């Protein structure tokens, strides 16, 4: 897992096209399905919010600021978590550069 944290994350990441999401009622999870490959993955609601903000207009710092305000958490902690989430998304090809 430490190797994933060394993956290069685009400055303003963009969510891969063709991802369909479905929130699981009564659970704190969202399932994403890659329409092209049929593969799927689940993430918690915070990671889903991070992915939703990967529109090519937001940096990791912007996303962390939103998460920090929304969740009423420390901005530095939110930035560390956001960077880790983005690194995993990059490692799995879920985000890309513009």
Give the overall form: globular
Q: Main beta sheet: strand number and arrangement?
A: 3 strands, antiparallel
H and E string: EEEEHHHE
CATH topology: Arc Repressor Mutant, subunit A
Tally of separate helices: 3
Q: Identify the CATH architecture.
A: Orthogonal Bundle
Strands, total number: 5
| Mean pLDDT over all positions | 91
* N/C terminus separation: 26 Å
Poorly predicted regions are 1-5
Strand content: 15-25%
List keywords for this structure.
98 residues, Arc Repressor Mutant, subunit A, 5 strands, disordered N terminus
Describe this structure as you would to a colleague:
With about 100 residues, the chain is α+β, with helices and mostly antiparallel strands. The protein has helices at about 45-50, 60-70, 75-90, and strands spanning about 15, 20-25, 30-35, 40-45, 95. It has a single domain (about 15-95), classed as Arc Repressor Mutant, subunit A, CATH 1.10.10. It contains three helices and five strands; from the N terminus they run ββββαααβ. Helix 2 (about 60-70) crosses helix 3 (about 75-90). The two termini are about 25 Å apart.
Layout: helices, strands, pairs:
Elements: E1 14-15, E2 19-23, E3 29-34, E4 40-44, H1 45-52, H2 60-71, H3 75-91, E5 95-96
Antiparallel strand pairs: 1-5, 2-3, 3-4
What's this model, at a glance?
With 98 residues, this protein is α+β, with helices and mostly antiparallel strands. Helices cover 38% and strands 20% of the residues. The N terminus is likely disordered.
